[in-house]
Design goal:
This protein is an all-alpha fold. 66% of the residues lie in helices and 0% in strands. The chain starts with a helix and ends with a helix.
Length: 326
């Protein structure tokens, strides 16, 4: 038992050393992404001051999906919590498991890039048009539906945590819960290794979408817009930035490769010794192909010579030599 614990500790320390080296070169991206989460919270807090409660808008999802009610609102949050913490723990699995595909620091740089880009678009949309909130605490008659003007900057900057975070209004298009859900599920789909978990992740994303609408936390349009916006953001960021290094292929490669490096590497790696064909077998196959080609040429030449002899197109001496060689 102590021996296994010692191995695990050595593995953890080795991985920690690698991740610290990566963090030294990428700390500004991690810090920028974390700071922007606070900025996003400030923006959501600010739009709450602009919110004006009104009648709930007509919505197809509200018509098709039964209402859970305020007493069951925890179901949606619980599902989101499972997705969030499962993904968070998975990103640190290289510290424990031997088989690993990702570097934790580089993966979080990419995840934060997805989140920041999506949240910038979200801020622009919910400030462009404020809709009356469908959530129970955002409806007419609720004390939380409107916010009085902040007494000081301290009250505004603290976001009135946690009440200001969980009881916000006005930040509707598009759903922040769906941004995190789709980013996490899509990231695991790209860099995870278990196909079953990938399928379960997308299923949870669909369930989360339904629960958000059933809890009346968002209109259906907020969820629908999130589905295509977030996936398009992920697509364009992946197209713009280099791929993350795959540790299952090479554990020595610590930094992302450029497109030029990938082109050179693909040319160098056209023959892969791991494909199951050894170099000796490959050379033997090439020699056999060359021999067959020579046999084809010889047979073709012999057939042509015989045809010429039959029609007296060559001298008799050449035909005698032809028969002797056969």
């Amino acid at each position: 038992m102590s021996r296994e614990a010692s191995k695990l500790w050595k593995k953890f320390c080795a991985e920690l050393n690698v991740e610290i080296n990566l963090l030294v070169g990428n700390w500004q991206y991690i810090l920028g992404g974390i700071v922007f989460q606070y900025i996003h919270g400030l923006a959501a807090r600010g739009v709450h001051y602009l919110h004006r409660p009104g009648p709930v808008l007509q919505d197809l999802g509200f018509f098709l999906i039964p209402e859970l009610g305020p007493q069951n609102a925890y179901i949606s949050e619980s599902t989101f919590g499972v997705i969030f913490f499962s993904f968070f723990l998975w990103t640190f699995h290289p510290f424990v498991y031997q088989n690993k595909k990702i570097y934790t620091v580089l993966l979080w740089c990419r995840v934060l890039a997805y989140l920041v880009a999506s949240q910038i678009l979200r801020i622009l949309t919910f400030y462009a048009t404020q809709l009356p909130g469908p959530n129970y605490h955002c409806r007419e008659g609720s004390e939380l539906s409107r916010l009085p003007s902040p007494k000081n900057a301290y009250e505004l900057l603290l976001l009135n945590f946690p009440r200001g975070v969980f009881y916000g209004c006005g930040d509707l298009i598009f759903s922040s819960h769906m941004i995190f859900t789709l980013v996490f599920v899509s990231t695991y789909h790209q860099y995870g290794t278990k196909r079953f978990i990938k399928h379960c992740g997308w299923l949870l994303a669909v369930i989360q979408s339904v629960l958000i609408i059933a809890s009346r936390k968002h209109y259906t349009v907020d969820v629908v817009v999130a589905w295509y916006t977030v996936n398009l953001v992920i697509f364009f960021i992946n197209k713009k930035f280099p791929e993350l290094p795959d540790r299952s292929v090479s554990s020595q490669q610590l930094l992302p490769v450029t497109s030029k490096d990938k082109e050179v590497k693909s040319k160098e790696d056209q023959y892969n010794p791991d494909d199951g064909i050894s170099l000796a077998v490959l050379l033997q196959q090439l020699e056999w192909a060359a021999l067959q080609y020579q046999m084809v040429l010889f047979t073709s030449a012999a057939s042509a010579s015989a045809l010429c002899c039959a029609h007296s197109l060559v001298p008799p001496t050449a035909c005698i030599i032809h028969r002797l060689t056969l």
